[in-house]
Write a structure and sequence with these properties.
Length: 147
């Protein structure tokens, strides 16, 4: 069992794994250098008369996007898997993606959509990039650690 982190922690303690939609074994993505997470909420607003001009709100939708920058590492199973999605479309670009937090929380996206934005092209002296976005496609499964 992995050691759980308490208190503050460095971002590299977050772990990501990826694989085919029905995969039982997922792979890490070698040479990942940065990630950023965006929570996107849909909020409906209305201003009823009984609130005397004050706006009421209700969150009615939610999605998550994870932007990832990595270096292209040919031969690494996770890195090769992501790169192999560059020319796929439709349901063929859906994956299983797992985000494991340092405290042991796991978030699993069963049909996440992968949008590749950079693959292997840059300055002549740069290391080839692999940049992509993981976009939620339906509600993820969130498993909290047991204490």
């Amino acid at each position: 069992m992995a050691e759980l982190t308490t208190g503050v922690y460095p971002c590299y303690k977050n772990q990501f794994q990826i694989g085919a939609v029905n995969a039982t074994a997922l792979n890490t993505i070698a040479d990942t250098t940065t990630f950023s997470v965006s929570f996107n909420d849909g909020v409906e607003e209305w201003s009823p008369f009984d609130q005397e001009g004050w706006t009421r709100r209700l969150k009615t939708a939610k999605s998550i996007s994870i932007s990832v920058s990595a270096k292209r590492n040919v031969g690494d199973p996770g890195n090769d898997f992501v790169a192999g999605l560059a020319f796929k479309n439709g349901r063929d670009s859906e994956v299983k993606f797992q985000w494991t937090f340092p405290d042991g929380t796991k978030v699993v996206f069963d049909d996440a959509v992968v949008n590749i934005s950079a693959l292997g092209a840059s300055d002549s002296t740069a290391v080839a990039p692999l940049e992509f976005e993981i976009m939620s496609n339906g509600k993820p499964t969130v498993t909290l650690p047991t204490t």
